[in-house]
User: Fold this.
Amino acid sequence: MKDIPLYQVDAFTCGQFTGNPAAVCVLNDWLTDDLMQQIAMENNLAETAFLVPDGKEWLIRWFTPVTEVDLCGHGTLASSLVVMEILEPE
Assistant:
């Protein structure tokens, strides 16, 4: 079993337990689509974002509990908070 850092972030708010929640999973490499889908289903939030570092950039994919989606605004904002405040605060 592999440990996957997971953050739950409320986007579009300044307070806890309000706004639009998204899970953010930080990976070293992509997992299988099926495994990412299962993780999103387990999180049971509107979206789970998966991040993989790519040089100085980050690659991102978004999953709902039932399918992968092409784009997710609040999942992207949640992911940017994780990158800029936790992973790369400099």
Remarks:
- The helical segments are 33-43, 73-87.
